[in-house]
Design a protein that fits this description.
Blueprint: E1 2-7, H1 11-22, E2 27-33, H2 36-46, E3 50-54, H3 62-72, E4 77-81, H4 85-97, E5 101-104, H5 111-129, E6 154-159, H6 163-171, E7 181-185, H7 189-202, E8 206-209, E9 214-215, E10 220-223, E11 229-235, E12 238-244, H8 256-264, E13 271-275, H9 284-292, E14 296-300, H10 310-317, E15 322-324, H11 326-337
Parallel strand pairs: 1-2, 1-3, 3-4, 4-5, 6-7, 6-13, 7-10, 8-10, 13-14, 14-15
Antiparallel strand pairs: 9-12, 11-12
Length: 339
């Protein structure tokens, strides 16, 4: 049984979140707290397995509380954030501080939307309960040696839970001269823009959300927008990245499988695919197609993954030829490209 403490200054929100979670037989809400000080006492007394945490609260904001919590008593935390620009930026900061995942605050709408939200919240809490809590480490130095971009036509990256930090750690070790990079991260629309801007501010690579058909070039990183699929096609001998609206694949849009499978069908080309931390199995089938087509396919290992779901599925399917932690994957990529 997963024991959850719900922290939110809104009594209505606490009641709604608690009610949603309690409907799952594997989850029990052991308590509620209206502010970080109540939460601190409740954690000591109730010893929850997972915390759901609001960001904007009286007396102490959620970020300050999270920072103290991760320093004194690290535990799985799922942030509950508002869908605003400020909320998106602050949520990414919370993930940097050690939060496992986030969900937006539920909004009034159709019953079907609330049902989908409830499933999402319960899934996130369950994943957090079994997540691998990792100590934050400073980023390694960026490579300075020459890169031969002709060795790879493209690098494809897929990730989900824990992926915003995983993708950042990998990209920050690569120079501006990398082959074109395409990223599918399971993320909601409003947060994907903030995620993209954050990556662009940290790396010498040019990082942007893909908005239209684009012939990909070295030094560019294209991120799939939240709620839109990304695929790779070949037109007039050039690789072109596209975004499109279609039904979710495996409940995901964007889906890693869509990108990987399209790249496998794009004709003979030199590809590297990396499948990083995330729950579920999205990307496994597409990675197998890439491997069968001659691409290099690697996955993040269990010890370094926040949730070893997607990488594990690919590994057990035989879709990946190697696994390693994030620094190892980043370094091996550079070795592959060494001039």
């Amino acid at each position: 049984m997963i024991r959850v403490l719900v922290v939110d200054d809104s009594q209505l929100m606490r009641a709604l979140i608690s009610d949603i979670l309690e409907k799952d037989p594997d989850i029990t809400v052991v308590g509620e707290a209206a502010d970080p000080f109540e939460a601190r006492d409740a954690i000591k007394a109730l010893k929850p397995d997972v915390l759901t945490l609001d960001i904007e609260m009286p007396k102490m904001n959620g970020l300050a509380f999270l920072k103290n919590l991760m320093r004194l008593r690290p535990m799985p935390v799922v942030m509950v954030s508002t869908l605003t620009q400020h909320g998106a930026d602050v949520t990414l900061e919370a993930l940097e501080l050690g939060a496992i995942d986030y969900v937006p605050k539920p909004s009034a709408g159709a019953t079907s939307a609330l049902v989908a939200y409830s499933e999402l919240l319960r899934d996130k809490v369950k994943a957090a309960a079994s997540a691998n809590l990792q100590q934050q480490r400073s980023l390694p130095n960026r490579a300075t040696f020459g890169i031969n971009t002709r060795k790879l036509d493209a690098i494809l990256i897929g990730a989900s839970t824990g992926g915003t930090e995983a993708v950042k750690r990998v990209l920050c070790q690569w120079p501006a001269t990398m082959p074109p990079i395409l990223i599918v991260q399971h993320i909601r629309p409003f947060f994907s823009s903030a995620f993209t801007r954050h990556l662009d501010s940290l790396t010498p690579l040019d990082v942007a959300e893909l908005e239209r058909d684009t012939a990909i070039k070295a030094g560019e990183v294209w991120v799939a927008p939240g709620d839109r699929h990304m695929r790779l096609v070949r037109k007039n001998g050039k690789l072109v990245a596209q975004v499109f609206d279609d039904e979710p694949v495996g409940r995901h849009r964007p889906a890693v499988d869509v990108l990987f499978a399209s790249a496998a069908s794009a004709g003979p080309s030199k590809m590297l695919a990396l499948l990083l931390t995330g729950m579920g199995r999205d990307g496994a089938d597409g990675m197998l197609a890439l491997k069968n087509g001659g691409a290099t396919t690697w996955v993040q290992d269990e010890a370094s993954s926040v949730v070893w779901g997607m990488p594990r599925a690919a590994w057990e399917l035989g879709a990946a030829s190697a696994q390693g932690d994030l620094d190892t994957l980043a370094a091996r990529t550079l070795e592959l490209l060494k001039a």
